[in-house]
Amino acid sequence: MEDRISEPELVLVFSGKRKSGKDYVTDLIQDRLGPGLCCVLRLSGPLKQQYAQEHGLDLDQLLGPGQYKERYRTDMIRWGETRRHRDPGFFCRLATRGARQPVWVVSDARRKSDLEWFWSEFPRQTRSVRVESSEETRKQRGWSFTAGVDDAESECGLDRDVKFDWIIRNDGDASSLDEQLQPILKLAQEAATSSSSADHH
Ligand SMILES: Nc1ncnc2c1ncn2[C@@H]1O[C@H](COP(=O)(O)OP(=O)(O)O)[C@@H](O)[C@H]1O
Ligand SMILES: C[C@@](O)(CCOP(=O)(O)OP(=O)(O)O)CC(=O)O
What we know:
The chain has helices at residues 22-33, 44-55, 59-63, 68-86, 90-96, 112-121, 135-140, 153-156, 174-199, and strands at 10-16, 38-41, 103-106, 126-132, 166-169. By secondary structure, it is α/β, with parallel strands linked by helices. Its EC number is 2.7.4.2.
């Protein structure tokens, strides 16, 4: 669709339940690698942008971690699903447009079609990562079960039959999180290095 100047060297596609810490963990990875090497891409970014515009909502609040987005979640899910049914790669293409860094961290895959899009566009580079937290931890972070959300495809689409390359337990201990992220950071650093050496040839 768009003219991509260069392909990424590594695409880490994250998924996980609400309040499992997808944003927290993917931001941490970007902090460690730096914004020159690594960008965080949110499939919900272009979705929220378009949804906010059509409904006259506050985009910054929709993008933030607070309660505001929860008011609109059920309707946003429905709205996004209509779009995805017409074109499953719609939000993936928009979210990756303009990404130039060698390492892409996609923070919020929710459906098989999201992962399949990355596997098919970037088969060599794509790795899938699941973030998991106990219900108790998620409750401490403000989660409570909502029918129509937590039992719907948006939250459960990747619960079964997906082979994850890594599963990260994010139940609060910073040193354990650091340790679990080491192999991912190592791979990302190698990918970034190979892209910079390719640039010099
Ligand atoms: N390991 C962690 N240590 C401290 N706070 C965390 C950790 N993981 C998540 N959080 C906090 O929990 C809340 C939910 O995390 P977030 O990354 O927004 O989850 P998700 O994107 O999966 O819904 C945020 O306020 C975040 O800062
Ligand atoms: C309509 C959504 O894109 C809303 C996503 O919002 P967030 O990505 O902010 O969600 P959490 O981080 O899990 O709390 C969900 C979808 O089905 O596409």
